Amino acid sequence: MKITLTINGKRRIVDVEPNDYLLDTLHHMGYISVRRGCDTTSCGVCTVLLDGKPVPSCSVLTIRLSDRQITTVEGIQEEAERLSEYFGAEGADQCGYCNPGLALAVHALKHENPHPTMDEIKNYLVANLCRCTGYVAQHKAIRDYLEDEEA
Ligand code: FES
Ligand code: FES
Fold first, then answer.
1. For a designed S-S bond to 75, which of 13, 20, 71, 111 qualifies (C-beta 3.0 to 4.6 A apart)?
2. Of the bound ligands, which one is closest to the alpha carbon of residue 137?
3. What average pLDDT is seen over the chain?
4. How far apart are CA 47 and CA 127, in angstroms?
């Protein structure tokens, strides 16, 4: 059936099956920045924002999303680029596979809690796994980024 999705502020008509997941729909539409990892709601690399909140797109049925705002990293491009400079400065930019989902989660954190403590950063990002960095450099980069964004 045809439904209208709102992705990064643009309305798009898509043909979906009742059991299509958002990750697959987005890939079919060309949003390949949304990564596939575990496909079982465990790794967070497929994170997108739904009405501003991070969700694993591999576990959300597309057919339920006609009235929702979907954001991929293309929708926060400038912010993601600024954040990546902080990752680079901390040596936290390795394979980069987790970065789009992480950037979206950081965007959501910034809006929910602009001045988080390091523990609050770690807790908020607990669902965004990274196989490369060991997290310490990532979290430090995110803390520095959020501090400078709010300065
Ligand atoms: S691919 Fe969705 S949580 Fe891992
Ligand atoms: S940098 Fe490789 S998975 Fe995070």
1. 71
2. 2
3. 97
4. 9
